[in-house]
Amino acid sequence: MRRLPVYLVLDVSGSMHGEKIEAVRNGMQMLVSTLRTDPYALETAYLSVIVFDDTARQVVPLTELMAFQPPHVEAGSTTSLGDALRVTKECIEREVRKTTTDSKGDWKPLVFLMTDGQPTDDWQKGLTEFRKIKPGMVIACAAGHDVDTSILKQITEVVVSLDTADSSTISAFFKWVSASISTSSKKIDLAKSESTQISELPPPPPQITLV
Amino acid sequence: MTIVKLTTTDGQPVEYRDEIIGQGGMKDVYFSPDRSYVVAFFRDQLDFQGKERLKSIVGAYRDGIYSQKGGDYWRDLFCWPTGIVEKDGRFGVVAPVYRPHFFFSHGSVSNDMLGIKGKEKEGKWFASASNRAKFLASEEKGTWLSHLQICLMISRAVRRLHAAGLAHSDLSYKNVLVDPSTGKACIIDIDGLVVPGKFPPDVVGTPDFIAPEVIATQHLSKTDPSRKLPSALTDRHALAVLIYMYLFYRHPLRGGKVHDPDATKDEELSMGAKALFVEHPTDASNRVRPDHLGKFQLPWGDPARIPYTIAGPLLAELFRKAFVDGLHSPQDRPTPSEWENALVRTMDLIQPCSAKCEMGWYVFDNTTAPRCPCCGTPYQGALPVLNLYSSRHAGAYQADNHRVMVWDGQSLFPWHVNRKVFPNEHLTPDQRKRVGYFQRHQGEWFLVNEGMPQMHDVIAKLDVPVGGNVKLTDGAQVLLSREDGGRLIHVQLVNG
């Protein structure tokens, strides 16, 4: 059976310290418990978590829903967005099964990228790497006003923003992520066509603005 | 909590609590204060046609089904909207709440580890071998008999829609609620019904259930004459897929064949132009690869271990018509009424599994040593098989192609006693009562007469009064009724 790989790429730079990082932890917990009540997601969705501060690293490899444990994330230092894109690309290349003449591979992965600040590394170099793969849909979330959404717009067409990055908006974002995964895994289990347009996602809650 | 008060377009008062309790693909749903009905508002504006469609569904079509003789029967099979409301330019429908048995009472295993207790029993839970094996509490799973009953309810409901000139157009396990613990099913999301020639469909359907011709032509413009849109004929495909999935817990077209390296394109081909039954009798190219299945998908996920033919000759014939002859030839697909007939008769062919396995019941196959296809337990002892004949002209009896496999405690109903009675919405309350039952006593089988005043043992030439019984021996012949269409049963004893 084809799997639906979902990559959560999360900014854990110093500015995320405190309430925000706590909200991200709770958000992941809520995400996984919501998806566990969805019979489609249970059959198809696999989750991975990649975090980035001064470097990027995969803290949870692609894991089926029932085995997924939300990682303990701590806020660190800078914002290596470029490195995050590079690591995401490498993980997708390594973990997502390709279709062969003999065997059906996975669905194209969904990537949710959340950041609250300006990249501090050469993000364009990372983006060039990232462009070498073709994920199903990349959704970038600008948490708060310190983000240059024009950079995110170069990564993906689907950019949303949270006016304030606090526990209630971050929680709303994770809720929307889980609804999006349910929709896509339904669609995929049902339509088996990947979502590539924002119109195929559930309507975002009021705290989330489409950019 | 604010209570909003409205009046339906036909003047009925309606109230709801101003808090969304659920969001579907198209609608936001609110509870009435006493939770006896819901109000569901469409998020998008309805066009003129959409409004007209709603009016006729809530009005003329509803009346047509519910106000006829036996109309009450449909209350349990459809969640049919009863009124239309408008608020701030948004349209909505008023609909009954779902019955309590359509919500999980136990949920998942290990003290409901998934936290699904109280949630709707979405059909996908039950139509998947791995979800059943890994997660569902045993109290929720029902038996294979209750799954036959669910399929019967769905077939009957679709038959009624088609008879009214309607097509559902989006049948799927998303909009059919099922309850395997009681064998009940209910069609929801009625507001999207298609009236051929009058109200066209606004969705292509829910994938997994979309007919191949609809997928193969979806790139064409809506006005292109070659474009195929949902209709009663595509409902027939969706119905066959639903029945297959509820009886075998796998999809009939999802096999191992790779059509394209791109997952999206591969999907479009394998559900559309190149769709091929995984159990096609001669083309083996889309067989399920057992090495691709996880342990929780077995045995049901592997058609080589549990082929569709375990459903017995009547259903197997219809699966062939649906997925071999009719897959790319819509006119050849079985009608809902054919499914209804075959399901009713198949329920007379089943036997309880003596090991009381998860399947619980199976179609008795008397051509070989019969055994439960799920757990492998062989049938033991002598089994009476009743071949049913009925009178066509005075005194002449003809075979009805209807058999009854007897089990201890099984009931006889008026539709066994007379060919002209068929179990459906037209039964009178009297016709729903059993008129006899079978009992095994010290290794011998008996038919006990509870309500057949004309019952007669043909070989012994003796009447069997109500309250009396007759022993079932090989070659025994028992007349159940002397009326026109009355049945004669001929007993065969088969040794397991």
Structure description:
The complex is a heterodimer of chains A (211) and B (496). Chain A is an alpha/beta fold and 211 residues long. Chain A has one domain: von Willebrand factor, type A domain (Rossmann fold, 3-Layer(aba) Sandwich), CATH 3.40.50. Chain A has helices at 19-35, 39-44, 81-95, 123-130, 149-155, 167-190, and strands at 4-11, 45-52, 56-64, 110-115, 137-143, 158-162, 208-210. A 7-stranded mixed beta sheet of chain A has the order 3-2-1-4-5-6-7, with helices on both faces. In chain A, helix 4 (123-130) links the parallel strand 4 and strand 5. The termini of chain A are far apart. In chain B, helix 5 (144-163) runs antiparallel to helix 7, helix 7 (232-248) crosses helix 9 (312-325) and helix 9 runs antiparallel to helix 10. Chain B has 11 helices and 21 strands. Chain B has 3 domains: 3-97, Phosphorylase Kinase, domain 1; 102-108 and 117-348, Transferase(Phosphotransferase) domain 1 (Transferase(Phosphotransferase), domain 1), CATH 1.10.510; 381-495, Tumour Suppressor Smad4. In chain B, strand 8 (176-179) and strand 9 (184-187) form a beta hairpin. In chain B, the strands form 6 sheets. Chain B has a 6-stranded antiparallel beta sheet with strand order 13-12-21-20-17-18, with no helix packed on it. Chain B has 496 residues and is an alpha+beta fold. Chain B has helices at 48-66, 109-112, 129-134, 138-141, 144-163, 212-216, 232-248, 263-271, 312-325, 336-346, 414-417; strands spanning 3-7, 13-17, 20-23, 27-31, 37-42, 83-87, 90-96, 176-179, 184-187, 350-352, 361-363, 382-393, 396-405, 411-412, 436-441, 444-449, 456-457, 462-463, 469-471, 477-479, 487-495. The N and C termini of chain B lie far apart (65 Å). The longest helix of chain B has 20 residues, at 144-163. Classes of the chains: A alpha/beta (211), B alpha+beta (496). The A-B interface holds A 1-2, 33, 36-37, 39-40, 42-43, 66, 98-108, 186-187, 189-194, 202-203 and B 23, 43, 114-116, 119, 122, 124-125, 128, 130-131, 134-135, 172, 174, 206-209, 256, 258, 260-264, 266-268, 271, 289, 292, 294, 297.
